[in-house]
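Q: What would this chain look like folded?
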Amino acid sequence: MGARSSCKIIDRAGFRPMRACACFLVLACLCAASPALAQTGPFGDVDHHIVRVDGLRFHYVTAGSGEPVVLLPGWPEMSWIAWRKVIPLLVKSGRQVYVLEPRGFGDSDKPQGGYDLDTAARDLHGFLAAAGLSRPGGVDIVAHDVGTWIGHAHAALYPADVKRLVLTESNVPGVTPPGPGGIPSEAVNLKSWQFAFNRLDDLPEILVRGHERDYLAFLFATKTTRSYAIEPAAFEEYVRVFSTPGVARAGFAWYRANFSADGLAQAKMRAAKRLPMPVLALGGSDGVGDALRAAVATVGDHVTGGAIGPACGHFLPSECPTELVDAIIAFWRTPS
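A: My prediction, written as structure tokens:
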């Protein structure tokens, strides 16, 4: 994929699709994205789009041609570039790739609320319709981390939208068994401390503001095995995104909303719904391993997967993109 980046606006509120000039003239071209998107050359040749769903603006990128697949990024990347290494591999395999930035992520709108997974599922359902991806038999969806929360919730509530579902490196609220009580080991604490921290009201924003770079550096250092996989350009973009007003707050809101009493009640109701579509559930060998497959198998009718490795940490799309795409393509080729 080359270094060219273009920008397209699709406003489903009633405006005609139009191609904007290169994103270097973002504001002049009415492209509703920050000027930094003009610097996405290092992350591939993609088209940028804005779509409106229920009054909110959602940013997404596309690349390639062929049968579509929708990718959902996770936290703390909060950006489409989490899939930067996977996009060209899927395009090469003959797929048209859509990467959606959910509410609060990247250059999508960052409202004060709506970070519960029932709302996120409705957002994704609306996005598929607005982007022209609703079709008989559904569309393939691939998700990571918080994207996996969204992917599962959407598949449970809107199963007709989903052809095949790939979930990676996460727990699933309401489905994954709670961890043991007591004080976790040092190794477990390094992998999971953010679940308690991010749920606190106000304190995460107070402590992280002005220290976004140090915060993200710690997260990537402790959750990767192949630390070199978060290259400097990607790290700088993650810092830019996380430092954008509203993004850190939204990132913490995903945890607060979905591990609150209301969020857990929603999760319990979703967990009672079977997943009828084929599901591939993957963890890193040094991440959640086989735990995601084992959890999802309790609510899915056709679940396969396991651990990818060796030496794959939490950030599978960055650390192990080839292994991940190979597993996904093999899954797609398996008769359902």
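The longest strand covers residues 275-284.
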